[in-house]
Amino acid sequence: MVATEKDFLKVLEAIREIAPTLRGNGRRAEEENWIPRTNIELLESTGLFGAAVPERFGGLDLPAEQQAALLTETARACGSTGWVSVVWVTTAWMATLYPDTAQEEVFADGKVRISGGFTPSGTLVPTEGGYVLNGSWRFNTGVLGAHWNVCTALVEHEDGQVEEVFPLVPTGELTTADDWDVFGAAGTGSVTSTAKDVFVPAHRVVDAAVYESATADRWNAHLTGRNYSLFSYILAVTTSVFIGLAKAALDEFAARLPGKGITYTNWSEQKEHPHIQFQVAMAANKIASCEGLQRALLETVQRRADDGEQMTLEEKATVRGQLAFVAQTTKEAVAMLLTLSPASSITRGMALQRIHRDITALSLHGLLAPIGSLEAQGRVLLGLEPGTDYL
């Protein structure tokens, strides 16, 4: 049975119910460089990890906008948990572009956690029945708790042509390093993973053309309205983390404001000061404007999928550029709120300083940074080639 609005709302409410626990585990996630097992189990119980899984495998098969709404609430509770969840949900959607044989393996239990990335730092060598995979992948978010991982690699064909491909392997066949030591988003556990002479059957390796031809129903004929443009879908949904973190900052600031004065002044209630009121309104409006951009991006992604059409170059460049804008603008909103806060906000026990560090760290991601992302959008707006294949 296809998921209904009622099913979506049930998952949304379940995430909101467990949010206090996720939020309470935030410091522990940071200290341990990985989200607690409790967070994963609670989110799994809500059904979140089935959000992008095809209905025919027992998943919710939700549209991108509803996926984003669920992930926003997750990130609002815990930024690291939200970032990991975005990776697991969107990469599960990527698995729907593989042949049926691979999908039957991956989605055997109806819900799955899949990690991966797009840096081709591995090599594939053809062998009987498939390939042998070797390589290492840095910043592999979610691999510590995933069932499968997309290990982007290069393969050299007999004619000498080198092609980028996407092997899908069980995470049990990879090793991971203890090398995630960062100032923000520490709980994402984005360690380096390594494959050494891992055999990958041919049906679990696809090339870039498969992803680009998603709307042609090459592999995902069962996914009506889910034939998204790969990068545009992932980037549009990823805005959820930044909006969730910014909302969390506003929540935290407002909750601590009553009874707070302005030190070394006669103001006994900070909230009564016009400057505070002005800045809070500005921060709230920055967040609201980003939500509006997110809705527009998701509507474009969904409309093209519903119509069975590829997104245009202009639309893809807009998604890339506007995601970077969302990342920067929400980061500004969080910084404004932290600046207004009392000195006690810098202590490790206060959530606001961690939210600020998390959103700052995540905004440095290569696909989200202004240089590259806004450049690509600007180039296309000026009638030039985007200067990147990552659209």
Automatic annotation (TrEMBL):
Residues 25-94 form the Acyl-CoA dehydrogenase/oxidase N-terminal domain. PANTHER family: ACYL-COA DEHYDROGENASE, ACYL-COA DEHYDROGENASE YDBM-RELATED. Residues 239-367 form the Acyl-CoA dehydrogenase C-terminal domain. Keywords: Oxidoreductase. InterPro entries: Acyl-CoA_DH_C, Acyl-CoA_Oxase/DH_mid-dom_sf, AcylCo_DH-like_C, AcylCoA_DH/ox_N, AcylCoA_DH/ox_N_sf, AcylCoA_DH/oxidase_NM_dom_sf. This is Acyl-CoA dehydrogenase. GO terms for molecular function: acyl-CoA dehydrogenase activity; flavin adenine dinucleotide binding. It comes from the Bacteria. It comes from Streptomyces phaeoluteigriseus.
